[in-house]
Inverse folding.
């Protein structure tokens, strides 16, 4: 059964950093492009970063240069290092496949506020 568990979210001041983690079952990760998504309050969920199985990455312009996505295929884990955080990064963050998503996890909330 596909399962995703996100962690690492917190309350952080503008300019701060956080590292999110997402662990999943092997059938979710194997040979798949993974992505981090976020859902700001009152808005729809959308992707912010993707990583192929071989490590090629892509970002939306709003986070390019501040966020870094990585993965450890042996651990079925994907990470999101977030630096220089801004108030507009406040959202619940989720991971999932970029194509053919599986049931969503609970997400991890990130609040950027002074």
């Amino acid at each position: 059964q596909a399962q995703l568990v996100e962690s690492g979210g917190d309350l952080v001041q503008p300019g701060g950093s956080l590292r999110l983690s997402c662990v999943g079952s092997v059938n979710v990760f194997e040979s798949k492009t993974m992505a981090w998504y976020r859902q700001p309050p009152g808005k729809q969920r959308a992707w912010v970063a993707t990583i192929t199985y071989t490590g090629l990455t892509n970002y939306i312009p709003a986070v390019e240069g501040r966020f870094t996505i990585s993965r450890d295929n042996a651990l079925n884990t994907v990470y999101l290092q977030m630096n220089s955080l801004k108030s507009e990064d406040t959202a619940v963050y989720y991971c999932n496949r970029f194509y053919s998503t599986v049931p969503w996890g609970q997400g991890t909330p990130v609040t950027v506020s002074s």
Notes: The beta strands are 4-7, 11-12, 18-24, 34-39, 46-51, 57-59, 67-72, 77-82, 91-97, 108-112. The two ends are 40 Å apart (CA to CA). The helical segments are 26-29. The longest helix spans residues 26-29.
